[in-house]
Design a protein that fits this description.
Distance between the termini: 76 Å
Mean pLDDT: 81
Largest sheet: none
Radius of gyration: 42 Å
Number of helices: 34
Low-confidence stretches: 62-69, 474-481, 484-497, 613-642
Number of strands: 0
Shape: elongated
Strand content: under 5%
Amino acid sequence: MTTPPDMTITDAVDRADAALLARRLDARTCPPDLLGRMVRHPAPRIRHLGLTLLAERADTPDAGGGGGGEGGHLALVARLLPDSPGASPEESLLLAGLHARLGARRPRHRLPDWRAAALPARVRIAWLRTELLGDPAVLRTEPAGELLYRAVRESDAAEAHRPDRLVAELVDTGDPVLGTEALRLARDGLHAGLLAPAFARGLLVRLLDAPDRDVVTGALRELAEPWATVTPLDAPVLTRQARALDGRSADRDGASAALAAAALVAAARHGHPTVLWSTAEDPAGTPALRGQAVELLGDRAERTDVGRLVALAATDPLLLAGPVLTCLRGLHRRGHFPAEPDVGPLLALALADHTLPAEDVATVLYTCRRPLFDALTDAPPTAPDWPRRLELLVALSRQGAADIPIGEAVARLLPAARAPRPFLAAIRALRPPAAEEAVLALLPTVPSAALDALEAIGGDRTRSALARAFGLGGPADGPPTALSGAADGPPMAPDSPPRLPVAPELRPVRDRALTLLWHLTREPGHRQDLLARLDPQNLPHDIEADLGAPDERELAVLRARVDVDAPVAAFCRIAAYTGTGTLPPGGIPLADLLLRIVRDLAAPRDPAEGPPRPGADAPGPGGAPADPARPGGEPAVSYTHL
């Protein structure tokens, strides 16, 4: 329902008072007759205001007048629009937008003769866009140029009356710019549900014969999308791109390289490994394309192709070893694993190219871990490639190869190693149980690397050796080691404070060795003796951070009052007074206490009893102790003590 215009509005229209009309009129309630008078008014400002209100009226879905719904709006716009293209550029732009709305919904909508008017380029582009959206056949007669290119570029598939006809006409032009826009409109129309996948796929296949390489590249990339691979393309459709796949022009032309790369991806997605093999095995092809073809074979090759891939990588390890490893990772994910004869060639590739991730090599060859272990350890300790071999051994151990004595083998090779540092680093990572003596023997020669390993595997023997090195050793500390039996430094005067000398071999790593000795010393007497000799003004940081721990004997007294029948209170008390390296009293695991707490909290209760009081241990019905509840009033538990 609309409101009839009052005399004030009528007078404002008669005297062309645009300011008053702009304040008083609303596009949703303005009567159609008044809109008709305004869009045909002789004053330019009134016409512009009327066209603006008409455009707002057409964009308002629940506007009244002219019938209900969108059909009523379009009928109102068609009835009120003038037959001229507008007297000013601003009017003409508004009219072009209104005619575009009509042309997208009404077939064969007649436009005013905008071509005969002297309009600016921006306005002519808007009118040409309106004409294209309503009748795409205009592309057959419209000359190619900037005007047409910009009109198509500003068009959307959702605004066209027939998006399929518009895209098809653009493809038929054969123009590179229009072909690119056809790709964009086809993609947008497909994702918006305006074009059927089969129709869009057919248009993309037609674009593969376009003369412009960028258009073909875009079509190939779109055909490699999942929606287009549901129906695979025939091999001849892709082999027609052989002129780019040969790669000989790709080194000089970036467009050819992009086209070849897109063709390889499309061939892999549509299941044509022959195209990938021919590119990968072409010695005259572009190196980047050959590597890409090998990587893409990871989704198409089979178990029987592993030997062929390894042999291909052996022809140029620095170029193809990485892509082959990536391909084998793809085969591994699909359940195709190398066989024992492939271990030697693959290991040769890993030893030749140190940029290959050791973890990936160990993953690919995990099913052949025993032959791989034998091949890695079948080298003299003085071989120059042992750092790389150790890296591969550590990576193999991290894969969970518990059935192979990797750590023991490295420890056995350590005494004869020409360069022990990589072996010590591997021992730190592997932590073999019987390598402490071999590492201690190297402490005088490579103290820093040896301490790195001893931090992971050191025990009582390491503590005894370090204690003697700092002048704290005695007969009870164990057999002598390769370290100096006595620490250096002049004898102390009787009244001088205690000092802690150090063996000459450990001078460069004194603080690290002292810290390791401190952490390995557990016996209270030895710990107090070492503490008495430390210089408070020159303490290593890790030792200073470890000082101030509570007395374990005092904590044991506090933990003794634990009632396992009250698991909440017991757990809180243990957590509050626990120490390092201690167990709950009575050997009751904390996990068992947690299970008891959860069981009691989940047990059903009688609704008549009401909610339990936090921390209450009052007896329940029949004199039995009540189930413990979550302690609301208990102090917060410090989990840092657990």
